[in-house]
Design brief:
It is built from 11 helices and 10 strands.
């Protein structure tokens, strides 16, 4: 079933979760260990992230260096299929621009279609660590809008080989990302929302937001989207904080801010357990307010550690 169908049929706010594929060399049981405790909350769908390749340089026997491509978390398509088979819930694999040509993108979409996966979240993706700015693959998409347009064309039976006769259309439900605190590369919030509207106008069906810790920013973002003519569901993304490092790391990685009140509560913490409990309590209050506002789904970024998410969601039923 499509994400939008789950939303339209629901009589209350749903819970969904996002996981990372295991590191190369780890087994799928590590993912099952994360997901098993979450199944009691009856998620209609699980998101599975995609991680692009990176370049590394390895020293050769003659003392020179060779450039090698590595990907630390492969297996998004296979993991999505395994989740659907094991748990009977829909999977939403992420597709990104970085590292893909348009032909490779088409091939992956065909593979997902063959596997019975009809939900995708389309993202530009991050730049490589070695890059100053995002650089698309040769003959690849430069942004998520182009990725949306290609997927929509395939939904109409239009493939890259235009001479194909009677090509079967795909039937993907397309999600895209939204940023309550603005995408870090956008000039301002208005231009960022206009970029988002272009993706919706091109055929995307719903929005999932970047994590945020101040509900006011989410509500303002939704209001601005509606004022711009965006009518699709806007799903809030959430992350319970669990350790002090996240206070420094998350703003650097995701370009987000923490409310002053939350930081003040963290300043009073004396132990790691105190910090974790403050983060969980804050997330619970966030979720209760969002449920009161009748958001369609609460989407949790587990980062493949579900224990804190379980503590939050168990307080919301």
């Amino acid at each position: 079933m499509k994400v939008t169908e789950h939303i339209s049929r629901a009589k209350k706010t749903l819970f969904s979760f996002e996981i990372l594929p295991p590191l190369k060399g780890a087994g799928i049981q590590t993912i099952y260990h994360t997901l098993d405790p979450l199944m009691e909350f009856k998620p209609p769908f699980i998101n599975v992230t995609y991680h692009r390749s990176e370049f590394i340089f390895r020293k050769t026997a003659d003392g020179n260096f060779e450039k090698k491509i590595v990907r630390k978390r492969p297996g998004t398509a296979g993991l999505s299929t395994a989740i659907m088979t094991k748990y009977g819930v829909d999977a939403v694999p992420h597709l990104i621009c970085g590292g893909f040509s348009i032909d490779e993108t088409e091939d992956l979409l065909i593979e997902l279609d063959f596997l019975g996966i009809n939900n995708v979240l389309l993202l530009r993706g991050d730049k490589m660590k070695s890059e100053e700015v995002f650089t698309p693959q040769a003959d690849g998409h430069k942004n998520a809008l182009d990725l949306v347009k290609q997927t929509v064309r395939m939904n109409k039976g239009i493939y890259l080989e235009e001479e194909l006769n009677n090509a079967m259309p795909t039937d993907f439900c397309i999600g895209v990302a939204g940023y309550p605190e603005k995408h870090y590369e956008a000039k301002d919030m208005n231009s960022d929302i206009q970029n988002l509207k272009e993706k919706i106008d091109a055929g995307a069906h719903y929005i999932v937001t970047q994590m945020f810790f101040n509900n006011k920013k989410y509500f303002e973002f939704v209001a601005a989207c509606r004022a711009a003519g965006i009518t699709v569901p806007i799903i809030p993304g959430l992350k319970p904080l669990t350790n002090k490092k996240q206070i420094t790391n998350l703003p650097k990685i995701f370009f987000i801010d923490f409310p002053a009140e939350l930081l003040q509560q963290f300043d009073l913490c004396k132990t790691d357990d105190d910090f974790r409990q403050v983060g969980i309590n804050w997330s619970i209050q966030q979720c209760k307010e969002l449920i009161q506002a009748q958001v369609p789904v609460l989407h949790f970024y587990t980062m493949s550690n579900s224990s804190s998410v379980v503590q939050v969601v168990s307080q919301l039923d």
